[in-house]
């Protein structure tokens, strides 16, 4: 039951200051977030793609309080896309964006986020890749889906993320599982109330399988966001039963978690995409990684005990 406690800490300024100042934090954070700048992360992209993997890049940072910060977030993605173009990696790398980083929570935030994300989607399309809109807490989803629908009018490959622990997601999956759609399914990593989300892991896992079946039997392109060996095996079986070829779906896992499995799946012919985050505002992303899986928290705790 530590997950909800950690998620609550992810919203605490006091905990942010405490953890950020701890001398052991940076080497642990580096496991999940391999750099703060484009220059630092480029070698990571080249290494991963050189192993036959693909990547989705996330510039971390969600606590936007001014429009100027949202413009800076937009520009950070445009800088990244420019570097990917220089490297000729447009077909191997896509972008993942959180609309909160583009100003979604500010006054007039829906329009601001759409205005900020559109040039990023346009630039991505120009180098042969695309953008996926990450899901955040349930209060933001109607706005996210509306922006997704608007972007797909001109850029039909724009993807979105759905979260298995939310009660609404099965209906969302049925609506999204259409020809040309790209949908990443994850379990969910935000603290959500019992009125809108499953609270037990077992219930979330069952929902994940039900939703994945909808996506696999649909006409879109499912992206399986999970490190769970059992769910990966189930996904392969559902794909087989749905008659999908290996290039008609993909697996996605986080940088720094089960790296051997990334390579193994790619070697078997699967499309395997590594979700790779970078940037200076890493706290919220890092805390959700700890909350998602007890092994991540144990890794952090061991680091504190051995280096403290």
Automatic annotation (TrEMBL):
Gene Ontology molecular function, alphabetical: nucleotide binding; proline dehydrogenase activity
Biological processes, Gene Ontology terms: L-proline catabolic process to L-glutamate
Enzyme class: oxidoreductase
PANTHER family: PROLINE DEHYDROGENASE 1, MITOCHONDRIAL (PTHR13914:SF0), PROLINE OXIDASE (PTHR13914)
Identification of the protein by name: proline dehydrogenase
Cofactor: FAD
Keywords: FAD, Flavoprotein, Nucleotide-binding, Oxidoreductase, Proline metabolism
Record-linked InterPro entries: FAD-linked_oxidoreductase-like, PRODH_bac_arc, Proline_DH_dom, Proline_oxidase
Metabolic or biological pathway: Amino-acid degradation; L-proline degradation into L-glutamate; L-glutamate from L-proline: step 1/2
Binding-site positions, substrate: 98, 288-289
Cofactor note: Binds 1 FAD per subunit.
Organism: Streptomyces populi
UniProt domain Proline dehydrogenase: residue ranges: 45-299
Lineage: Bacteria, Bacillati, Actinomycetota, Actinomycetes, Kitasatosporales
Catalytic activity: L-proline + a quinone = (S)-1-pyrroline-5-carboxylate + a quinol + H(+)
Pfam families listed in its UniProt record: Pro_dh (PF01619)
EC number: 1.5.5.2
Binding site for FAD: 163, 187-189, 201, 226-227
